Amino acid sequence: MTRARLNGIEIDYAVSGSGPALLLTHGYSATRRMWEGQHRALEDRYQVISWSMRGHGQTESPADPSKYSADLTIADMEALLRHLGVQRAVIGGLSLGGVASLGFYLAHLEMTRALVICDSGPGYRNAEARAAWNQRAHERAAELEARGLDSLSGRSREMREAMGEHRSAQGLAHAARGMLAQEGSHLIDGLPGIKVPTLIIVGDQDKPFLVPCEYMAKKI
């Protein structure tokens, strides 16, 4: 377990291997530990970096809800890479981590060697669809505040395994409202401008993300 104080918060991260850098960002309510298999599989060829986002795992969970946003997530990714002396990296993530990776590319093209986007989507142009997504994010936050971390027990393996690692259910609730909820269409609008090698990965039974991933693959 390694931690660094970056952008005013303590970030938990792990680094293994050597070679070109690969930064991996987890999905909502998981932690960096979901990438332990990738550390083992890739560390003979890459410097593999995984980290836990604000409100997740052993990374700090600020009490102020304004300290959770997509922009702050991207800023944390940049700060962590610079802390490790990495000038360019393959940027990869799953679900919310994939969204953050797209956002990182649009903000820091010069630091992005390639993209790996797993089981994710680029958001919405349609305001009604975006509002429906955001309503679900706010419902997730309310459930965490009402039931605590037990509300993760019926979800994915990565989420269940993370239950004992999170510092705060309230931090996850803040993250749902500030990071999982979406604003605007800049990610989906930016897809045709992506110029680095990009790998889109989706599980064939992950039905909510089949169409979004196919769309991204066609547009990039």
Describe the biggest sheet? 7 strands, mixed
Strand order of the largest sheet: 1-2-4-3-5-6-7
Structural class call reads alpha/beta
Please tell me the overall pLDDT: 94
What does this structure look like?
The model has no long low-confidence stretch (mean pLDDT about 95). Helix 3 links the parallel strand 5 (about 90-95) and strand 6 (about 110-120). It is globular and about 45 Å long. It has about 220 residues and is of the alpha/beta class. The chain is built from 8 helices and 7 strands, in the order βββαβαβαβααααβα.
Short description:
This protein has 220 residues and is of the alpha/beta class. The protein is built from 8 helices and 7 strands, in the order βββαβαβαβααααβα.
